[in-house]
């Protein structure tokens, strides 16, 4: 991962501008290798986050996912302290914490205080590791807020492999995972390995979270894993459509954030979270207005149809 | 549907326990194929435990148990199971139809592709029609009424094309009219398809016109028989080891008196 100097914005000599010629705009956006890598890694991460996020929201694990990313912060800074790549520490910490969370299963629900405490302590540990490292704080800030413009070609390759494996695991587990998520008791009686799936899911989530940390960082993970899925859940009540909408939105937020951050000298994490937040507000507003508008007229229309000859 | 006339459930000297904690013991009974049995008894008496044994989720502590001619095993596709009505999150944005769909192929790995998608959706349609839930099957299940949810959960069990239905308190938290409607629906489905049905209930009255026999689970033991054989002052007093009185009104409704004090004492 690169230095903080590129987190926000690179200042190219010829000031880029955004016009109505889309082909030229895309060429401009992908002119530099750092932007190509950002778009490649960002797309893979967003797809994975959007798909797994749908299950995170459905399983009521949003806060656990958030906590997982904070545990990753301790791992990432610890790895830096030991001279290892941050992703190694991220994966080690999130995957072991994920396995424990998965083993707890249903008992994890409503454990906000416990998760919150572990989360706070992990941030504290990360702070200690950063202090012990005595280097600049920029690496820690990069882990907290992401540094998608600093991703190397090699990291893109690693991220892509991890992303493909994550998606493949979710495709294989799709039906039993949906079954235990929606109806655990019946799934168990029907022979679905409920506990095994719970652990496997949290480990897969740990990998997805670790990938996403590269783009949006530990603190902004909600924007890619939870927000798109939460919006999708309001837009459609079909699981398959929900997953597609969630993945599409995550990719959209990421592309939009990267594009705006290329032209405007403010951090990309701000733009991605802003798009996610505003879309969520709009989705809530629309479903609120929709509910208000349709409740009575729908009943009325049905009555009309039923009574017409 | 071809069906063997051998009994659906055979229990001999069956004992249920969680670790050291004995639930009930030495129960011997037979449930015949196509029979409709109401399972009654106080809370914590071990009614749901009986279901866990039949589903293969709990092993007998002693004795033997045969379900549909075999030892119980988890994931038996011949059993349709509806657990005690869970409170479905009203915000859960999943169609009733998707819930039913889980009963068709929810335990298979991977995603459905090709021909099996069409087959599955036809099975879902049939199950939804069987419980007359077509009108609201495409709405989010969290928004439906208790009776509507109960129909769809029943449809989920039917979608697995079972031979036996285990229904845990399907009438709980329904109003009186819906209790009767759901009870009659289950009875007509059972008759049309030859299902063996075990249905856990608190109140026998909505079930009196349709049950063949009653299985009473209380105080460490089981008693089975026709309603007017089992639900008598004498049998229940012996089962509970406490004075119990059974009253009947002019419509034949049965009222068990003396349980409130007993169960309060027991739960306390």
Could you explain the architecture of this structure?
The complex is a heterodimer of chains A (309) and B (268). Chain A is 78% helix and 0% strand. Chain A is mainly α and 309 residues long. Chain A has a single domain, classed as ABC transporter involved in vitamin B12 uptake, BtuC (Orthogonal Bundle), CATH 1.10.3470. Chain B has 268 residues and is of the alpha/beta class. Chain B folds into 2 domains: 139 residues, 3-Layer(aba) Sandwich (Rossmann fold), CATH 3.40.50; 75 residues, no CATH class. In chain B, 32% of the residues lie in helices and 24% in strands. Chain B is built from 8 helices and 11 strands. In chain B, helix 2 crosses helix 3. The C terminus of chain B is likely disordered. Chains A and B meet through helix 7 and helix 8 of A and strand 5 and helix 2 of B.
Please provide a brief summary of the model.
The complex is a heterodimer of chains A (309) and B (268). By secondary structure, chain A is mainly α.
Strand order of the largest sheet of chain B: 5-6-7-3-8-9
What is the name of the CATH topology of the largest domain in chain B? Rossmann fold
Number of helices of chain A: 13
Biggest sheet statistics of chain A: none
**Largest interface, counted with CB-CB under 8 A?**
A-B, 26 and 31 residues
CATH class bucket of the largest domain in chain B? Alpha Beta
Distance between the termini of chain B: 49 Å
Overall geometry of chain A: globular
Number of strands of chain A: 0
Give the count of structural domains of chain A: 1
Number of domains of chain B: 2
Question: Which regions of chain B are unreliable across 5 or more consecutive residues at pLDDT < 50?
Answer: 262-268
Percentage of residues in DSSP E strands of chain A? under 5%
CATH topology of chain A: ABC transporter involved in vitamin B12 uptake, BtuC
Shape of chain B: globular
At CATH's second level, what is the architecture of chain A? Orthogonal Bundle
Provide the gyration radius of chain A in Å. Answer: 21 Å
Oligomer: heterodimer
Given helix and strand content, the structural type of chain B is alpha/beta
Measure the end-to-end span of chain A.
Answer: 71 Å
């Amino acid at each position: 991962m690169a230095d903080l100097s590129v987190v926000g914005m690179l200042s190219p000599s010829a000031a880029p501008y955004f016009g109505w010629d889309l082909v030229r705009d895309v060429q401009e956006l992908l002119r530099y290798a750092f932007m190509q890598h950002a778009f490649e890694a960002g797309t893979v991460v967003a797809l994975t986050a959007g798909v797994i996020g749908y299950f995170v929201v459905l399983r009521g694990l949003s806060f656990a996912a958030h906590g997982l990313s904070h545990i990753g912060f301790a791992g990432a800074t610890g790895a830096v302290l030991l001279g290892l790549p941050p992703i190694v520490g991220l994966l080690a910490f999130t995957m072991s914490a994920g396995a424990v969370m998965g083993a707890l299963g249903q008992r994890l629900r409503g454990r906000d205080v416990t998760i919150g405490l572990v989360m706070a302590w992990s941030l504290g540990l990360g702070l200690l590791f950063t202090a012990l490292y005595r280097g600049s704080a920029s690496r820690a800030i990069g882990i907290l807020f992401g540094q998608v413009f600093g991703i190397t070609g090699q990291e893109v390759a690693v991220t892509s492999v991890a992303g493909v494996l994550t998606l493949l695991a979710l495709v294989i587990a799709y039906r039993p995972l949906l079954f235990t998520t929606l109806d655990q008791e019946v799934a168990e009686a029907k022979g679905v390995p409920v506990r095994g799936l719970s652990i496997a899911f949290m480990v897969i989530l740990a990998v997805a979270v670790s990938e996403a940390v590269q783009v949006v960082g530990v603190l902004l993970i909600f924007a890619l894993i939870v927000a798109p899925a939460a919006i999708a859940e309001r837009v459609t009540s079909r699981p398959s459509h929900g997953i597609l909408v969630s993945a599409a939105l995550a990719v959209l937020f990421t592309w939009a954030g990267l594009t705006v951050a290329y032209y405007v000298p403010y951090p990309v994490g701000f733009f991605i979270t802003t798009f996610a937040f505003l879309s969520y507000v709009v989705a809530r507003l629309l479903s609120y207005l929709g509910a208000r508008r349709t409740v009575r007229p729908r009943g009325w229309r049905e009555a009309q149809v039923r009574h017409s000859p | 549907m071809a069906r063997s006339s051998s009994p659906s459930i055979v229990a001999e000297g069956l004992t249920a326990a969680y670790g050291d904690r004995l639930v009930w013991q030495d129960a011997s009974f037979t449930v015949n194929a196509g029979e409709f049995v109401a399972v009654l008894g106080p809370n914590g008496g071990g009614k749901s435990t009986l279901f866990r044994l039949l589903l293969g989720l709990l092993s007998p502590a002693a004795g033997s148990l045969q379900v549909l001619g075999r030892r119980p095993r988890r994931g038996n596709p011949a059993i349709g199971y509806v657990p005690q009505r869970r409170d479905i999150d009203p915000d859960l944005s999943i169609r009733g139809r998707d819930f039913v769909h889980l009963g068709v192929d929810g335990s298979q790995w991977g995603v459905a592709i090709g021909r099996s998608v069409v087959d599955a959706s036809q099975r879902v349609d049939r199950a939804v029609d069987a419980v007359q839930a077509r009108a609201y099957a495409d709405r989010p299940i969290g928004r439906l009424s208790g009776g509507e949810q109960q129909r769809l959960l029943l449809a989920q069990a039917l979608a697995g094309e079972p031979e036996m239905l285990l229904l845990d308190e399907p009438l709980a938290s329904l109003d009186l009219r819906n209790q009767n409607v759901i009870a009659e629906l289950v009875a007509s489905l059972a008759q049309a398809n030859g299902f063996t049905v075990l249905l856990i209930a608190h109140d026998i009255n909505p079930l009196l016109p349709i049950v063949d026999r009653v299985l009473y689970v209380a105080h460490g033991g089981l008693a089975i028989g026709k309603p007017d054989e089992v639900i008598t002052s004498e049998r229940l007093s012996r089962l509970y080891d406490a004075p119990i009185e059974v009253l009947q009104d002019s419509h034949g409704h049965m009222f068990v008196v003396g349980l409130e004090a007993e169960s309060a004492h027991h739960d306390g």
